[in-house]
Amino acid sequence: MSGKTTYKPCQKVSPRICRGAIVIAIGFILLFPSIANAQCSGFARAVSKPELSPYIHDGNLNATILGEGETIILRKTVFKGQKYRLLVKGVPDLPPIRFRVLYLDQELFDNANHDFASKWDFTAEVTRTISVEVTIQEDDDPDTLKGGCVAVLIGIDPN
Question: So what's the pLDDT on residue 47?
């Protein structure tokens, strides 16, 4: 005998109860991101969407959870002559949120050059697909990592 003992997590309870507990635990692990994203979508609807006014929301709700240093890219087709409002909003505890609007290799807008403004109004000069690159900046405290909900909404001028 080698003297090794094997760990049996269900050794003191019924196997049926143990399997049930494992299934419930896995369910919570899989369900948690859905709950977090639902709360994030609620933030986008309740807090961010009103800031599009007087522009009309385009119907696409883009909200996700980001942490410091993380980046997402959203692509959107804009149409020549149409006026738009791009709104990028995060929960209050986040470090500054940087967003850049790109077309191919050309930078059309960078809110870092505008005191990290949360919105940008523009008129599309041509019909094209733009990329909106959103990054949570890293703050000065290396001991904490902050993260939270970020919403990216686009409004269309009703006139």
Answer: 74
Looking at residue 103, its amino acid is Y
Q: What is the pLDDT of residue 53?
A: 93
- φ, ψ dihedrals at 47, nearest 5°: -100, -50
pTM (two decimals): 0.73
Interior angle at CA 84, CA 41 and CA 40, nearest 5: 10
Average pLDDT over the chain, rounded to an integer: 83
Per-residue model confidence (pLDDT) at position 33: 45
**Extents of the domains making up the chain:** 46-156
Q: What tokens does 93 get?
A: 């505890």
Contact (CB, 8 A) for 90 and 97:
yes
H helices within the chain, ranges in order?
15-43
Helix (H) or strand (E) holding 43: helix 15-43
Amino acid at site 102: L
46-156 in CATH: which number?
A: 2.60.120.380
85, 52 contact by CB (below 8 A): yes
Output the pLDDT for position 101.
98
